[in-house]
Amino acid sequence: MMKLFRKDKSYIQSTLGALQLLELQQSRREQKRLSQEPATPSSSISRFVETKDSVSEENVHQIVVEAVNRLGGIKKATPEAVLDELARHEWLNLFDVYKHLEMLKTSTRYEGKNTWIGSTSGKKPERKQFGVQDQKSSLSTRNKDVVRKKFLNKLQDMALSADEIKYHLEGEKKMWHFCTLFPQHYEFDKDTLIQQWISGGFLKGDHKYSIGDFYFRTLLCNDYITKARTWSSIAKDIYKVNTNKLKEDNSTMLHKKFSLLKNLHHHHKVSKEVQYVSLVGDGIDEASLERLKEFKDLKALLLLSEDVSSISKIPRNVFAALKHMEVLDLSRTNISELPNSIGNMIELKYLDLSFTLIELLPETLECLLKLETLKLKECRRLFRLPEGLKKLRSLKHLELDVLGQLSLLPRGMGELTELETLSAYLVHKDDGRSIEELKEMNKIKGSFCISRLENVVHPSEVKKAALFKKKHLKELELRWSDLHQSSNKQVHQDEILQALCPNSSLEQLQISCYGGTSFPSWIGDPTLENLTSITLFKCDNSEVLPSLGQLPSLKYLSLVEMNNVIEIGKKFRGFDSTSVAFPSLERFTIVGLSKLEMWKEVEKRDYPSLQKLTIERCSNLVAIPSSLFTQLYGLKHVEIINCRKLASLPEYILSISLVTLVIEECPLITKWFRKHQDKDRLNTQLVQNLWIDREQVTNLGLDLARGTLVF
């Protein structure tokens, strides 16, 4: 498309202004023409008669060709000049001109295409016949034009500069072709593809990810990319390309620089200019990889075969020859090491070693100063990262299960100030590994865990980490080691947690194995207006729960194995009696509070949004507040499990249209239910699904005549 424009006139300038200028020019010319013509019905109404729907595709092309010929031929006619020449056709827009000029240029290069043959001599163009396959190709072109049009509109809406739009439109073609490297059943996630697009240089600037995300969603909406499945454990969608549709729309424009190879032994059929290669054959071995050295300009290599078990070793010199490589995907192979020559690939921006047998990374990795993405997910044998990792200051995504794979992080991680993706940070007492390393790592986003907080020597270290500055974090876990509470209690635990106050943008918070006796006030501060989920896990030394009732957006609350809490009371609610506590809470889970005896101080208007309540392994709990259920008309699911001393249920729990009530290992409650299976009792209500000790009970009448149900 870019070749259609004259060198002395910017493509982007015409793109940005053509639509607006055309509209203004058409309006002025029309007003002038109407002022000169008699106001007859035919002259005043005829301009509304011709619409795009009333003109065939062939006639549209002929109109464009004739305009091109009047302007001196295809080499001289620019899109804006064609628009000006055809201004009387109000339905014609810039994208129609793009499409037909592209068809015109294609027809002058290739014989037998399904287009009009454009002449530069001013003669009437020769018409060729359209066949069934021609009509299919024409339809495909229109499908691709929809994607291109939406993408251009997005770039214009973002108010990017002319140069930025030009760059991204050029990159759009490459992103499109890059998808042709994927075989039919190859699966990927969205972030991976966008990272590869960015590392391949197809996108740039501050908005590159959002632009890539928009283009991905556009391809998805137009069925060029389809959803394959969902990883239920992390709710992550997995996709694959619609190879049939992609090939259909690429049939006349597949670029020679992109190639999906099934057998490198027949690579002589591939142009030496190829730059982006995916290998999908079953016979990929060291010998075939050696032949990659012949492709001197190779920028991307993806090993995507379903069976790559034969790949256990990378030839030592192959990387030395591929100095222009930007994207390298060796995931799901059996390689256990990388050769030191990886350090020669100084242009490399993306390296994926996930699901491999890699044990160590070579120290020469520190030479990859442009590396932006390093993926080491599910590398079960990997036990440390190279000490030179801190030199990779362009690194944005370090993807690995830090807690499951490593016992120690390299020194100086704080120098990776561009890092956005890191699952966890392991606090250590050594210099260069303390929590202070987080001080300037303010671009960390998504989910993040700070682990081994027992290694913090003094609360002042935490203050220097400036957690409140990390405004891109959405999910945060603050974790102490599980065994430290009983073996080595820390004096400053309360002060440390107080200093770990996060940014108000946080959405999910988990505090695990905290050894302090109380919680800081920031946890329940209503300024944390985006906080929707809180989990307090194994905070065994805490006797009093924090005040959480004022959090405006809290939807999910879990209290798990807090074995010193005796009471859920007024402080937990955190409001005076005239206010509504927990206004947005939908799910409340209480598990393993072994010393909990009473739950009280609940006002009738509290918990108005509660849908599911779970109380489990609270062996000393004797009562649930009756006021909790007076107005909970949205409550649908209640589970009470292994609460052996619980002797009563509030009367309203059986009259609020519960969908499911589960009673398990609660002998006093079970005893009462077994004694009242008289179907003829008056004033009864039925729970839709009632389960008692893993058996479903049907047609059970429940007597509500008494003020409360005592078992």
Concise structural overview:
By secondary structure, the chain is of the alpha/beta class. Among the domains are: 2-130, no CATH class; 148-250, Orthogonal Bundle (Arc Repressor Mutant, subunit A); 256-400, Leucine-rich repeat, LRR (right-handed beta-alpha superhelix). The chain is 26% helix and 15% strand.
Percentage of residues in helical conformation: 25-40%
Tally of helical segments: 18
Mean residue pLDDT: 79
Strand segment tally: 26
Task: Write up this protein.
This protein has 711 residues and is of the alpha/beta class. Among the domains are: 2-130, no CATH class; 148-250, Orthogonal Bundle (Arc Repressor Mutant, subunit A); 256-400, Leucine-rich repeat, LRR (right-handed beta-alpha superhelix) (Alpha-Beta Horseshoe). 26% of the residues lie in helices and 15% in strands. The longest helix has 26 residues, at 11-36. The radius of gyration is 34 Å and the shape is globular.
